[in-house]
């Protein structure tokens, strides 16, 4: 089975519904050849979109991806590469950073994008995201940086990550945005109530979902809520003869905002489980059974 792709916004790019997140790439202890083989296996599953950030792996993950791509440059044409900027971490790889902080200045956005291009060994980033809302965000200055990067052919599309609806509206009023990458899972349902998914649906923008399995806690959380959710997942999984993890992702994918889900695992089995979710349709009763298990009460 392969995952499908969709256009994530009007005049936006086409991305795979399952996105390969490389946040932990540096922890997987893979050789460049093993990283390349992993990418090829993901492509065989229809996973064509890769999620990165400048800070991932203590500023090393983009370079690790670049090493793999250098072994098979032709793969670049089959991939959509997403990366993020705007956070400055304290790191031996960035000795000039004196305090951990956000920086969405024009100079930093442009410099970060150019550094990401060098690290990954590519000519163009498909999508650049502002990683976190910056209290000092100047929407006009960010829009100017985006325009420069787009006009110089360094970045095709732009979006944000972890922005509230109001923060999204502010920046989108200055420059077209194609997605908001937000946290959503059966253990974190806030976007269903805070307007984030409503906004995406109104604008016909597909959100990118991180921590869709609650960072792995969904399958081992021993709290009362975690146990309720896991029991409900197992019931639905048994009814459909699929894995509980696939059901948890299908619950997200079924939202009419047409979300994409990120998977951050280095195991091909986990990628297959995620791809299987794209072929699952839950009944309304099954969907709400999971919602009720998480919320701890029935709908009013």
From TrEMBL:
Entry GO terms, CC: cytosol
MF (Gene Ontology): oxidoreductase activity
Keywords for the protein's UniProt record, in alphabetical order: NADP, Oxidoreductase
Protein's name in the database: Oxidoreductase
Domain NADP-dependent oxidoreductase span(s) in chain numbering: 18-287
Pfam families assigned: Aldo_ket_red
SUPFAM superfamilies: NAD(P)-linked oxidoreductase
InterPro entries named among the record's database cross-references: AKR, AKR_Detox_Biosynth, NAD(P)_OxRdtase_dom_sf, NADP_OxRdtase_dom
């Amino acid at each position: 089975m392969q995952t499908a792709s969709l256009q994530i916004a009007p005049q936006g790019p086409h991305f795979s519904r399952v996105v390969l997140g490389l946040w932990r790439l540096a922890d997987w202890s893979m050789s460049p050849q093993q990283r390349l083989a992993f990418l090829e296996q993901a492509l065989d599953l229809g996973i064509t979109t890769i999620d990165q950030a400048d800070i991932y792996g203590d500023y090393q993950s983009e370079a690790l991806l670049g090493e793999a791509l250098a072994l098979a440059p032709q793969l670049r044409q089959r991939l959509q590469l997403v990366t993020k900027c705007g956070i400055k971490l304290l790191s031996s790889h960035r000795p000039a950073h004196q305090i951990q902080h956000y920086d969405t200045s024009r100079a930093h956005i442009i410099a970060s994008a150019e550094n990401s291009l060098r690290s990954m060994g590519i000519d163009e980033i498909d999508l650049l995201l502002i990683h976190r809302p910056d209290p000092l965000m100047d929407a006009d200055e960010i829009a100017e940086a985006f325009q420069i990067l787009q006009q110089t052919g360094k970045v095709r599309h732009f979006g944000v990550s972890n922005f509230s609806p109001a923060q999204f509206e502010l920046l989108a009023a200055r420059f077209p945005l194609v997605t908001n990458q937000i946290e959503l899972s059966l253990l974190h349902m806030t976007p269903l109530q805070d307007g984030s998914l409503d906004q995406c649906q109104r604008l016909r923008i597909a959100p990118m979902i991180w921590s869709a399995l609650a960072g792995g806690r969904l399958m081992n959380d021993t709290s009362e809520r975690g146990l309720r959710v896991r029991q409900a997942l197992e019931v639905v999984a048994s009814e459909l003869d699929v894995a509980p993890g696939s059901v948890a992702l299908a619950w997200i994918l079924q939202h009419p905002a047409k979300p994409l889900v990120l998977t951050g695992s280095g195991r091909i089995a986990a990628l297959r489980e995620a791809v299987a979710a794209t072929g699952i349709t839950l009944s309304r009763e099954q969907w709400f059974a999971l919602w009720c298990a998480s919320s701890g009460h029935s709908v009013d």
